[in-house]
Design a protein that fits this description.
Elements: H1 2-16, E1 26-27, E2 47-48, H2 50-67, H3 81-88, E3 96-103, H4 105-108, H5 122-133, E4 138-143, H6 151-156, H7 158-162, E5 169-173, H8 175-178, H9 183-199, E6 203-207, H10 223-238, E7 241-243, H11 245-252, E8 262-264, E9 267-268, H12 270-281
Helix pairs in contact: 1-2, 5-12, 9-10, 11-12
């Protein structure tokens, strides 16, 4: 996704810059690109004209903000430190902090379908917990989740429904339903959402799936576990936050049955939502 974003931006830029006069003034050595596979190989070791130089400069401006987030495990104590600092401020120096929960039926609040128990679902519980922790803060927690949706559908409306809200933090929760579209398609959709948010300076928390009673949690080859591992990898690759809901459930069922945390086979109950909130709260020290 990082490569495709850069190349799409490159093509758009080149189509809009009518540089006709070529001035050979600079040779870019191949060594300068050895660690940057996203850069076009046509630049390596040859004379670059003004058009190429301007194109390359634009390419770096797009690529570097993304690369700066690559392959980094971020700390819950520091990743949202600027947000947490803003949450501690009192009037008149405070500002509204906007958090968006984007995903499927679980953040939408579905318990035993068709019941929607909004005030016992993790977005509302997170809102309340943050208000308890930061009593002077003005906080909006907006739910843009739609029941039954997967990451591809969520990505299609990401700009219109999520980025338009100018959020400070976005939590993405689609892995439970992404089993229906497979790992590759889900990965592309998650990368699209992550990249578009990161480019706008928005902080991201990726959520691994909550359980499904029909899944085999002890089997690494089970699709639920595979999608959870993919979410963990994406968080590392892009240097964004990770809310490992599935790990929380694994720990909880060491002393209790999984059914005690579920309202139906694929939806958690209040106890299950509390586990997700515990993961999210780690990121707001």
């Amino acid at each position: 996704m990082k490569v495709s974003v850069v190349l799409m931006s490159l093509n758009l830029y080149r189509s809009r810059v009518p540089v006709r006069r070529k001035v050979d003034f600079l040779t870019w050595p191949a060594s300068a690109f050895s660690r940057n596979p996203a850069l076009p190989k046509s630049f390596l070791g040859r004379q670059c004209g003004m058009h190429d130089f301007l194109t390359l400069a634009f390419l770096f401006s797009v690529w570097l903000p993304i690369a700066s987030h690559a392959e980094t495990t971020v700390s819950p104590q520091t990743y949202l430190s600027d947000i947490s600092a803003a949450l501690t401020k009192q009037w008149p120096t405070n500002r509204t902090i906007n958090i968006v929960c984007h995903g499927h039926s679980v953040p939408a609040g579905y318990f035993k379908t068709p019941l929607v128990d909004t005030f016992n679902a993790y977005p509302h519980l997170l809102h309340k917990a943050l208000k308890d922790r930061f009593p002077y803060a003005v906080i909006n927690v907006t739910v843009t989740a739609i029941g039954g949706e997967n990451a591809e559908s969520g990505a299609k409306r990401f700009e219109k429904d999520v980025l338009s809200l100018r959020p400070d933090v976005v939590a993405i929760d689609y892995a439970l339903n992404d089993r229906g579209i497979g790992l590759a398609r889900a990965e592309a959709a998650w990368k699209f959402m992550i990249t578009n948010a990161v480019q706008k300076g928005i902080k991201i928390i990726l959520l691994t799936p909550t359980p499904d009673l029909r899944s085999k949690l002890e089997d690494p080859a089970d699709p639920l576990n595979q999608h959870a591992e993919q979410v963990r990898r994406l968080a590392r690759d892009y240097g964004v936050g990770l809310g490992d809901s599935l790990a929380q459930f694994r720990t909880a069922i060491e002393k209790a049955k999984l059914e005690e945390f579920m309202s139906q086979s694929n939806h958690p109950n209040r106890r299950g939502h509390d586990l997700v909130v515990a993961e999210l709260l780690k990121w707001f020290p």
